[in-house]
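User: Structure with zinc ion, tokens only please.
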Amino acid sequence: MTGLLIRGAEVAGRGSADVRVADGRVTEVGPGLLRATGEPVVEARGGALLPGLSDSHLHLTALAAAGTSVPCGPPAVRDVHALSAALGGAAGDAHGWVRGVGYFESVAGDLDATGLDRLHPARPVRVQHRSGALWILNTAGVDGLGLASADHPGIERSADGTPTGRLWRADDWLRSRLPPPPAPDMAAVGARLCALGITAVTDATPDLDDDALALIAAAVDRGDLPQRVQLLGAPLHRRAPGPRLAVGPYKIVLADSGLPDLDSLVDRIGAVHGAGRSVAVHCVSREALVLLVAAVRVCGVRPGDRIEHAALVPRELLPELATSGLRVVTQPGFLTARGDDFLADVPAGDHSDLYRCRSLLDAGVPVALSSDAPFGPLDPWTVLAAALDRRTPSGAIAGAPERIPFDVALDGYLAEPTDPGGTPRRVVPGLAADLVLLDRPFTDMAAEPVAGAVRAVLIGGAVLTDR
Ligand SMILES: [Zn+2]
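Assistant:
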């Protein structure tokens, strides 16, 4: 394997550093390294060189599908006119269908077929509500699916039996009635991640089936997904299929619609630990978090056990979280995307409970930042900006005491994928050469984090992006 020399970078706050990469690792860091004969050179021109970012919680196949869909909710789309324009401008699939995602009532109210027809009657349209529980179809869509004569309990009907265009919890049924979708474009996802400086990802989709596993494995094999990938949803006894595809902790979803009782959660975690895996437990509400903490009090924590989201953490739980050994994988980017809704739903005194960062770190809880894309913003620099200022779309601040400085927030993206929230990687000899070169010094990026500052990305020493 060949190497290269990165010249004149800023490393750990010091300018004019040269960094040699060979055989997939950083081998030398220091000023004035001599170029070997024929060694390729990247001139950093004072840009900061960082370890590649690791997004500890996202959803690869959903991200690929979202790439071919039209965003129909904030922040991309905020009102009826923007929604109409977005649907009208959408390319549509080979069968003429337009697929929208992320709809929220603040855009155009309680949407149904009639409402959607006013926005886009021409082609069949289906729009997914942000909750994931509801699809809304226009009349062309209703007719295309034959909803009038179909039989599914999720088909909402008016008093005279006409379908309203609203279809509840019917994803599998809907899929069976629609033309087959195009294969998810993982290469587009890989390229997007690269452009953002992400060199490792953890897929947090629970219960990945054989098709999803095969799709991700093939994308990694082909190099469509050049990132290192860890899977939380691999079946319990599945072993790692390759060096760039790892099996991580096992995902358990504590759905607020049906929390398990304490004993069954204890048994479930015990079974996962018994199989030699840690757990990654989805906890969005206070109730789910309290239940998890009670469960690990009984069954104990295995190193690597993690809490996904921790969207609401009551202050009184912080000391016990700190002693529990659990780590938190959270997403302050949701404040940027939906913060005003949260502020409306959560009493003012509890605003700091939302996507806590500072108080968790102060208490000694390891905290990793992540996107939960496509449900939260994928761009890590947006997530980092959210951790810095916790600003909502309207400009309000959600829990000012929970703000953290840029370097602290960035460390939340820099630990090994197997150790989220753990020791951040640094650009030193021995580091795997997963690197991000910015076009500006660190302090400039800290003042205004933007993805456009990512100039070059290396994974395993190979240059994947260089603008
Ligand atoms: Zn998720």
